[in-house]
Write a structure and sequence with these properties.
alpha/beta, Rossmann fold, six-stranded mixed beta sheet, three-stranded antiparallel beta sheet, ATPase-coupled lipid transmembrane transporter activity, ATP binding, ATP hydrolysis activity, transmembrane
């Protein structure tokens, strides 16, 4: 909660103004009730006029204080959130998080939406309501000890008991939603982007059925949220009615004159307490999200062994920030120089995440899932603005070799819209050739290419000394030294092509279905 240590003056001033404004609001109702009781005794008209004038002045004061309080509280909140966002993304720059991930951005945005209301709707109103309750209990001492006890019990119910009960309920609903939402996203992503793979594995109908079931579960989860809000409204309403009935019962003999004033005071007091119950019930859940956002973005789990000879990952698990599932779980993989490794499996099985843990462990050329190009010339994009040395003749030869001769080195391209997916793949492959590294890591290198271009890409890949590839294209699987089949973030089998085909497991079944599909 370090980010709440700033803007102290504005926060304190807004709370003070909020408390004063709330007390004035309660006083307006109390004076109105007192005037009702007083009118029974036919007081002089100037007394009634005086009370009306005070109520009017209080109303004007309340409006002014409310404006200043909102101005200070919202200004503080926006500054807090702005600084919090900046600090988070600064800390993310040095992490190995996939900042392009749509899911990561979506989840992070949802967290920030919850946190943006943290001060305005949770912290500030609760502090204000608690301080107002203290004043109300003290003022009740001027009337009757029974009213003091009533105010104290009411405050504990509304500010402690109800929020604790509903925080447990809210945490359960939110945890279920995160799991359901994550599973639905993964299955939908798997269905859309890996339909061919699912069709080959004869899993397309099963995944489609799972998506429908998960969407129904999400709708039921949302209904639980609506039910929770309805129960809060019901219980707070019953508490208000019960308090009014109790006051009438307690004051019906000696202090009946004060009953109208106390009833209106209770109504106005509940206007302060009722809006606090539901947000206060979200405190612990939102507090946890603040803690996740404030922590530096994590990298991969320990378990990497890097040497001049190769890379070893042992018992590596990985969970994305703000994620509801483990993208990798107890993964072991060893890659020695000169080996060709293929990582296969359905979409969403963890292949790309595993590649992300390997990337950066050695001096290697990388073809990631999301390809970056810049508003610059073809030459600048291929050489990364002169970082890779190459002659124009060599680059023109490579462009022609991958059927990109329609591009001239001085042609200016844009990072969005202009390049097709296949053009990006081939241009990025040329960039990797110019980078001239012995280790290549590639994510779906043959996707979005026709058969002839795929063969050219595969030939270049197999001419590279050490290769680690994630792919759905199983047409060249027999040329890899080691094949790893992934499922639900785990490597369920590894081995050479002949060994795995003889075993008749997941890899053999995938190869058979891929052949049938072709």
């Amino acid at each position: 909660m370090s980010y709440l240590k700033n803007e102290k003056k504005h926060i304190i001033y807004s709370i003070i103004l909020g408390v004063i404004g709330s007390l004035i609001g309660i006083s307006i109702f109390a004076l109105s009730g007192y005037m009702i009781s007083l009118s029974f005794f036919e007081p002089p008209i100037f007394v009634i006029l005086f009370i009306i004038a005070v109520i009017k002045l209080f109303g004007m004061a309340k409006g002014g204080l409310k404006y200043l309080e909102r101005l200070l509280s919202h200004n503080s909140t926006f500054k807090l959130i702005s600084r919090m966002r900046s600090r988070y993304f600064e800390s993310s720059l040095n992490s190995d998080e996939d900042m392009h991930s749509v899911r990561f951005i979506q989840t992070l945005s949802r967290y920030f939406e919850d946190i943006e209301d943290y001060y305005i709707t949770i912290i500030y109103p609760y502090i204000t309501a608690a301080l107002v309750s203290v004043f109300v209990i003290l003022l009740a001492g001027l009337i009757d000890v029974q009213i003091v006890i009533t105010a104290l019990v009411l405050s504990l119910i509304m500010l402690v008991f109800f929020p604790l009960i509903f925080s447990i309920w809210h945490e359960k609903i939110d945890a279920d939603y995160r799991t359901l939402d994550q599973n639905a996203f993964l299955k939908t992503y798997q269905f859309i982007h890996g339909f061919t793979d699912l069709f080959i594995d004869n899993k397309d109908k099963a995944v489609q059925s799972e998506i429908s079931g998960q969407l129904d579960s999400i709708r039921r989860n949302k209904n639980k949220e609506s039910l929770k809000e309805a129960v809060i409204e019901l219980l707070t309403g019953l508490a208000q009615i019960g308090t009014i009935v109790l006051i009438i019962f307690l004051m019906q003999n000696d202090e009946v004159f004060l009953i109208p004033m106390l009833i209106l005071l209770v109504i106005s007091y509940f206007e302060v307490l009722t809006p606090v119950v539901e947000p206060a019930g979200r405190f612990f859940n939102t507090h946890r999200k603040v803690g996740e956002i404030e922590r530096p973005a994590p990298g991969a789990a320990d378990g990497r062994k890097i040497s001049d000879e190769g890379i070893t990952l042992e018992n590596v698990s990985y969970k994305y920030p703000a994620g509801a599932y483990e993208a990798l779980s107890d993964v072991d993989i060893t890659v020695d120089p000169g080996e060709k490794h293929a990582i296969i499996g359905s979409s969403g099985s963890g292949k790309t995440t595993l590649l992300n843990q390997i990337i950066g462990q050695k001096d290697m050329a990388v073809m990631p899932q999301h390809l970056d190009f810049y508003n610059a010339t073809i030459r600048d994009n291929l050489t990364m603005f002169g970082h890779f040395e190459s002659s124009d003749v060599e680059m023109e030869h490579l462009l022609a070799g991958f059927e990109l001769e329609h591009f001239k080195l001085d042609d200016f391209i844009y990072f969005t819209g202009q390049l097709s997916g296949g053009e990006k793949k081939r241009l990025h492959l040329i960039r990797m050739i110019l980078e001239d590294k012995d280790w290549w890591v590639l994510d779906e290198p043959s996707a979005k290419l026709n058969r002839e271009l795929q063969e050219k890409v595969w030939r270049k890949i197999f001419n590279t000394p050490t290769v680690i590839i994630s792919t759905h294209d199983l047409s060249h699987l027999d040329q890899f030294d080691v094949i790893h089949f992934m499922e639900a973030g785990r490597i369920i089998e590894s081995g050479g092509y002949g060994e795995l085909m003889a075993r008749g497991g997941a890899t053999a079944e995938a190869v058979r279905r891929f052949a049938e599909y072709l």
